[in-house]
Each structure stands twice: as structure tokens, then as C-alpha cells.
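Q: Hi! First time doing this. I have a protein sequence and I read that you can turn it into a structure. Is that right? Here it is:
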Amino acid sequence: MIRRDPEGASERSYDLIIVGGGIHGVALALESARRGCRPLLLERADFGGATSWNSLRIVHGGLRYLQTADLRRFRESVRERRWLLRCFPDLAKPLPCLMPLYGKGLRRPMVLKAALLLNDALSQGRNQGVDNESYIPPGRLLSARDTIDLFPSAPQAGLRGAALWHDASMEDAPRLLIEVIRWACSKDATCLNYMEAIDLTVSRGQVTGVRAFDHMAGMEWEFRAPMVVNCTGPWIGAVAQLFDLEVPPLIQPSLAFNILVDLEPISSLAVAVSPPTRGSSMTPDGDPVTSPTYFLRPWRGGMLVGTRHLPREGIEEPEPTHDELRSFLADLNHALPRLELQASDVVRVYSGILPAKRAGSTQLATRDVIYVHSTTGGPTGLVSVLGVKYTTARSVAERTLRVLFGRRLKPAPPACEDRPAPAARISLQEFLTLERDRPEEALEYVGRLQREEAAQCGEDIVLRRTDWANVPRSDPNLI
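A: Yes, that's right. Below is the predicted 3D structure, encoded as C-alpha cells:
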């Protein structure tokens, strides 16, 4: 149960306070609680309501990192994908991915054949402890004919075949985050949404806790702990400077966005496509021009499409402009001329700020940041954490705890044995049917989400406790 009780929470003391309720803060709450710590998580809005909510819902297993021989990120991605499939079989499923090959550059059949073989060889333990239904099979090459059978709208000129591999899908990403919080709370974590940390309390250079403003009650609370971890994602720099005036910049922002479109899926698989490159071979900031890879994946009768990356100077523009959205649609139509995607087909835009390698770049940072403020004269016990990937949030949490506790850190229980049973869920269609036939039961279901999962408003329910609002098309039978 996620019990929102600020008064009761203020009367306890904690081993650490986590500021930020996105996937990295939530993962840290879980991993610390599973090791016998008592964490308090504070989120200024609703849990997972910002960048974490705006993902493509694909858990990439690391194939892309073989291109740059980044074996550390590859192994970490494989391990964390396995953890999600093993611990959340109800919410994470294998996802077949198809990339058409045209015999150019790295996307040639022989190159991808070698990459798939290497991917399988380096991830031999990818199915250890995973249910049979969640197994990740070996990758393989398909003929041009088989490619067209699976992906009829693939451009056929020069088509040599396709690479087929499996990653994983978060079937309901907002729900997965809530289930992580439920797990953390079952291990004695306390998680409060709509609670904004506004000041750090310090005594003789040592962190003692935070003051926070309760947006629901309109009052302040003070919470006590000798460690505070700033996990506020795009706001990491602003919060770090609020707590420690001397901290250097911790994030160079870039915009990432995906779209939900109301079109029939072009394939039953997730399809990876790239528009032809145009213009100079180098960007103005010195990055090499490479044709971006976009995934179009079936989603509840429509498609999720992404991810588009754009430069940003600050975090105040977390959404694409109309021109940027139109440019993305043009890019997709350039890659797939038969798609004919229009702005009117876009049902929802999912956007958020991610860390870039440097200012003005669209190249994402490749390394997570765990910044210990005391090393540059800041208060002891204050750490800021910036993760770069949803998939590896749990791994970042483990590393953060080693920094915080060193040898005092206890091991976690084996595998996922201590995860509580998933909460009962119903689809939008089931809820509307229930509301029509047994309205008192429908009202009780909503009441349970409010009492047991800290939903404070309708938006919390339809966007984050359920995925009812993320449906590409309306069923006239439901109206």
C-alpha cells in the first residue's frame, strides 16, 4: 500500500531521503528498502509524471552498444532487461524488432549477422531465471521475401532482407513504476507525492534532512535523515543549487519525444527505420551526422513512434514546437513513403528532457552521474544522481547505495522473491462496462486507487495508476 500520511511520516526518522519520484528515485527507494534501509521518497507532483512517463515503452537490451564496443553498457542493459522480465512478467514482455537491410553502411546483412551472433554470444545468461513466456530468443536474418511478409510497407528498392531480434516491452510503463513503489512500501519505504523539497537542513556541515511543502494541504513539513539524494532528473541542477550553491552544472539538456498515432500498425513487430541522410557529414556542434533510427511499434490498435532527439538550451521547453513535430513526421514519411503520416493522426506527444553529451548537442550522455557534494566543499551526506536510461535505473540505484553506505550496505534478497502480488487491474473497457452495470463496484475501484495508491486526482488515475488515457482510438461501443 502507498499510504500518503505526511504527519505520520514527519514523526519518523529515515536512513535517507530521496528527492524525485521518477524511475531513478523510485528504483533507489526500492533497492535501499530491500537492503534494510528506511528511505523516504518525496515527489513534488505525482510519481513518474514527467520524463519517466514519456518513454517509448521499449526496454532495449544493449544491441546498439555493440556498434561502439561499449561492453559495460551492453552487459548492464542485458542484466537489467532480464531483471524486469523476471520480476515483472505481468508488465514486461519480449518484443520482436525488425530492421530492414539495404546493403549500405553498417546496415548490411553480413554486418548485422555478425552483430546478432555477437549479441547472442555476449548475452548467454539473458534468460536465467526468466519464465518461458519471457524468453529472449536468438536473433537471425530474414530474406527479403520474409521481410515483406512481416512488413509489407517496407521500401522494396534494394531490400536485402532484415535483422530480427528481441528486446522487451513495458506493456504499461506508468503501472510498472507504481508497482515498484508498492514493492518499496511493502519493505518499509515511505513515498509521498505532491510533496516538494524546498530546503536542505544542515548541522555543522552534515545533512540532517529537508523541509518540504505539501501541495495538497498547503503547509510545510520537516523530515529527518543523515543522507539526501537528489534524483530530480532534468531539475537536478536547480535542486542541487538549491541545496548547495557551489555545485557545478550537472546536466546539459536535450529534448526527446515520441508520438502516439491513430493509424493501423504497419507490422505486428516493432520496426526500426531510418531516413536517408542529407546535407553535411558533420553537425554544427561537431557531431557526425548519422541517420537516426526510429521505432514504430504496434500499440493497442495504433502505433507508438520514436524517439526524436533535439537540442535544447534549458529545461523550460520540454515539448516540441509545431515545426519540430512536422519535421519529425516528414522524416518518418521520408523513411517510409507509404506511411503518409499527417499531424491529424497524432493523438498524443510524449516528451521530456534527457542529458546530452554537451550543450546544444543531440548526442545523449552515455554515463550516469553520481555526484558527491562533499568532494567539492558541499554538505556531507548530499548526493545528486542523474541517470541516462530507464532500463538501467535499478543498476544506478545499486551503485548509488554503494557510494552512500560502502561496506555497510546489506545484500538484497535473492531475485524478486519479496515482490508483493500485483494489484488487481482492469482495462478501460472493463471499467466502463463495470460503471454501466455495477456503478458501486466501479466507484469502489477508484476509491481503492485513492486509498491504497495515493492517487490525488483524476489525472493520476487515468494517466499513471492505469493507462486508460493512452489509447490511440475510441471504441464506439464504449460511448
